[in-house]
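Ticket reopened. Same input as before:
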Amino acid sequence: MSADLLIYLSIAAGVVGLLYTLWKSSWVSKQDPGTERMKRISVYIADGAMAFLKAEYRVLAVFVVVVAILLGVSADAKASSSLVAVSFIMGALCSTLAGFIGMRVATKANVRTTNAARTGLAPALEIAFAGGSVMGMGVVGLGVLGLSVLFLVYSSLWPADPHKVITVITGFSFGASSIALFARVGGGIYTKAADVGADLVGKVEAGIPEDHPLNPATIADNVGDNVGDVAGMGADLFESYVGSIIGTMVLGAVFLGSASFVQADTMLNGMAAVLLPLALAGVGIIMSILGTFFVRVKEGGDPQAALNKGEFGSSIVMIIASYFIINGLLPESWEFNGHQFSAMGVFWATIIGLVSGVLIGLITEYYTGLGKRPVVEIARQSLTGSATNIIAGLGVGMRSTALPIIVLAAAIIGAYTFGGLYGIAIAAVGMLSNTGIQLAVDAYGPISDNAGGIAEMSDLPKEVRARTDKLDAVGNTTAAIGKGFAIGSAALTALALFTAFMATTKIPSIDISKAKVMAGLFLGGMLPFLFSSMAMQAVGRAAMSMIQEVRRQFKDIPALKAALAVMHKNENKEYKDWSKEDQATFDAADGKAEYGKCVEISTKAAIREMVLPGLLAVIVPVVIGFSGGAEMLGGLLAGVTVTGVLMAIFQANAGGAWDNAKKMFEEGIEIDGQKYYKGSDPHKAAVVGDTVGDPFKDTSGPSLNILIKLMSVVSLVIAPLLI
Amino acid sequence: MSADLLIYLSIAAGVVGLLYTLWKSSWVSKQDPGTERMKRISVYIADGAMAFLKAEYRVLAVFVVVVAILLGVSADAKASSSLVAVSFIMGALCSTLAGFIGMRVATKANVRTTNAARTGLAPALEIAFAGGSVMGMGVVGLGVLGLSVLFLVYSSLWPADPHKVITVITGFSFGASSIALFARVGGGIYTKAADVGADLVGKVEAGIPEDHPLNPATIADNVGDNVGDVAGMGADLFESYVGSIIGTMVLGAVFLGSASFVQADTMLNGMAAVLLPLALAGVGIIMSILGTFFVRVKEGGDPQAALNKGEFGSSIVMIIASYFIINGLLPESWEFNGHQFSAMGVFWATIIGLVSGVLIGLITEYYTGLGKRPVVEIARQSLTGSATNIIAGLGVGMRSTALPIIVLAAAIIGAYTFGGLYGIAIAAVGMLSNTGIQLAVDAYGPISDNAGGIAEMSDLPKEVRARTDKLDAVGNTTAAIGKGFAIGSAALTALALFTAFMATTKIPSIDISKAKVMAGLFLGGMLPFLFSSMAMQAVGRAAMSMIQEVRRQFKDIPALKAALAVMHKNENKEYKDWSKEDQATFDAADGKAEYGKCVEISTKAAIREMVLPGLLAVIVPVVIGFSGGAEMLGGLLAGVTVTGVLMAIFQANAGGAWDNAKKMFEEGIEIDGQKYYKGSDPHKAAVVGDTVGDPFKDTSGPSLNILIKLMSVVSLVIAPLLI
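Engineering reply: fixed in the latest deploy. New output:
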């Protein structure tokens, strides 16, 4: 096999991924969206989501153009080329396109899932999962396709200089990271501003049930699920996926300096280690698609088991495939800088990555799962009030960092032992090799959640909501695992990019005993704290604007005001027992709420509030790199990665555990022989914990994944200028 | 001047410090303790404090003996000696003695402060501050004395091997750290268990006012102030003080390898850099004593201004003195390992340490001060409930890490630029040079707090409580600054010990690009999260036992039960309007509460809960050091120091800010044109924040100071075995 053939095969795999998304999304579109009312609501949500995307694209376009010009101008001709700007734009475009496709299908799949739930659980699962799999395969397909095409083009431009090819390609990762910043941080702010705003003023002040069409913020809330959990998560994993592949390519290029490697690699002329991550990713696409066929459930069956079968099934075939790919492509053994490497070593490093991803996911599930000890402990501490509930949740979150970090540390040492720095990077690729199906399962969650909301808003029979709730409950568990996986992969990707940064700057070491490095370590360690604080404040401010807008609508829109009055007048009666007149007044308000205004507020707030933390993430590494040098920047990256991962785990797990502690009361929980339900004092205390946990787990926590990767990739891009 | 003369002078300075404590403590003892009732209450508190100390000493004795044997046996004969065990025991003894003296006087000064407040503010301030200054001078006096004597003895044993002298002396620092662990972690658990227990069951369940003698936990609560804030803070600063001196000595000994240094240092035979920290500390004692004479307030004057005058006055004279000491002792300039050093450079490094200590204190005050923007923001967020109050507090805490870390990073780079690694260590000594007066001001706080409690329990007139409240309010600000100072000094001390560790193991670098170091960094970074979680859980469990004991007493002790019933019967009447019979029933309960039982519960819980985190701090560096090597241990230390400092600042400031946001409601606060008071809904929301913040700022946060220093010192002690 030649290098070109391998690239063409990668391109083919990317195209297969995209064909799958086309097929699945047209299948989803063909399903019945249900009643008129359901269609109308789903259009509101879809329009809101598109409104957010459009607003985001406007800012994005400016940002991308400015950065592309800066990149093009500042590119150092020797090691890089102004084409790095082209890579950047391509990365941004691919990520944007993946997000666009995913959101579009998700906002179609939600209402069709609701409609399918009218007949049964199995067809509903099928549609929700199909919607998720479009996001999943879109991400991996565009990632592999974009990278492969760039690689092919640049290789034909500089056939004799593979280092230059790879250096210029790093811009692709930077583009992906920039979009991830907008999607994840902006999306996180959007979704929580809408959620908190809708809850505080709708449920608490006006007394309207959740997901009720009278609440002007309810559409924004449902849009938020798509914006934050579908597009945000997709962009996050796209960034990890692309970042880990590129980091590994940079480190693989190091072996071009090993005579024993180049001699043995007759097939690919010493490029085997560079192309291996693309080959693994390409095969991973096929395995993920295979995995989706395992996801089937019979009526009355367990959706969780079906999803697990898909994920674990594809993991197992991926392990087998990796064995053959790695041993087929890499030389059996080689030597570099006095160290001995082997294909089997690289294989083990890949497995270490895959296994530690699964482990971190399972640990996350333990700390946040319904009925598990940590969550029960938080529920128990709710008996003495909200303060003890909060303390318990913070404690669980902090404690939950221990095991994932031990897994991560062991993975770092293990992967390094088996494959050196290249081993650490390829472990990230291993962890992310089945991103396709992982993300399909992740995105399935918010689609089911939306489906439930639409069922509620469309006055469908109770059994429909019961079915969507069952899908949603499974979605919560997969979301928790997905968050753990996203953090773990972000950590390994950041490390891959970090080692690639060192390889590029050619600094021999990053020595903590030097004052600059130590100072960099402290400064870097502080950034996740500052970043989290900014994200939380942003949610607070945006929620405040949302509250004011909802209050204004309740006051200024006569139909809404009248409907609210009628509702309160008939507080204890069901709708069918109301007077004809009251029913008419109430019905007249339908659709009178100005959902678009609320969507606009969340959109504007998200875009505005994202700027400062975003700039911080991009500018700090540049300033430190040029003022303090590459080694201090290395210290900064190490600091931001370590505390970033810790704070991300802490916040995600505390938030997840609080959420489920609250849910345990809603399902009814027995503590010390007494049973507690929704509405009890301990439940109210648990609601406080959940509200604190919301921005933790959905805004500030996940934003840190982006922070650590973005800072690493910015450093990698400016690395040639720091030599 | 010869080295011996300098040591004798240091011993003399230490003795002067101790004479001052003798003089002041006998002066305090001679003051009038007031009425019979006041005396009785103060005896309860003093006995409770001694009961804790005794229980602590029992466990301590076992711990010290076991560790001493291990140290003695494992000492490597070449670089160390089994006398390291003697140093360890001496360090433990000196710290214990300082804590004992400080607690004894504090528990005498409290009641005498109350009594003096019956006449006026000025005499009350005088006694409270005198009590604090005994703790302050006891700590610095015993620190300098203990170190100087050991140095003298070991120098006479090994006159030709100063390296061995210093290596063996490091055990002193380990001894100090071990006591600090017991005092700070145990004390922190003690004080919050008593506080939370007394509040939840006394104030909330039984409806008794704070500090009421009917509440069986009230004495334990007052004991807690002494145990946590006097003895705990004292041991913490003793550890920093001793650690920074020893770290600097180890690094100073490096210059014995510089020919130009040894040649120029004719006076002290190359030992000038080793002895400099002792000389600075010795002079610092005298300057601190001088400073105490500035602390005077006229009737109606401002106690804060008086305390500030003492602190800043002694800082300024210390700067001047440092200039002459450093230029007098060190050669004008010298060369080592290709780097140029100078006396003036070392002077500037010292000033950088001193100034950054003050800056970190001032920043802490900004983020936690009454009426300052961050605290007002938290108060405002209380309007929408406890959840938003919590989110705001967490946000403020996280954000408040930024400036102190920037100061710290600048200090590291600045001190290193002026004086290399030695500069970093001497900066810590500079920051800590006026520990004597700093600690006097710190310990003054809890004494005033106790004085207020005693006034309440003794039914003294309102103006007495008003005066003690004024002293206490000032104490809260100094406590916040003191906490910032303690964290800053812990960070620099840990760095000093860390660099000393590197100098001892002779590892050329701690290279983050090595997998082991990176893994160490992650593991180390995780420990403060785990440690904090353990400390918070410990408080939760201990408070639970306390609640059960108080409930039991209210049920089982007939006199208490009757008095409670009478109190509730006369709920809306003042005591003087009660029937004679009711008054008699109520009075009969006086002193019937079994305070001792509650004291015992807090004591036992504190000791028991401290074991696991304590062992963790001692064992982890040993395990990592021997299994992963010195460089991985270095990574671990860097990780634990960075996140330890961040988490300590985050928790201390969040807790302080929540506390004062609550206080703002108690004083009455106007938000958006509306005035809110104690008992309003926003105040209740703020109380939740305060309760969450209590273990943050008084248990888990301060414990991290110990964690980072203890792990560094353990590493330094085992360093000779890792070469």
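Chain A has one domain: 3-557+593-722. Chain A is about 85% helix and 0% strand. Please confirm and we'll close it.
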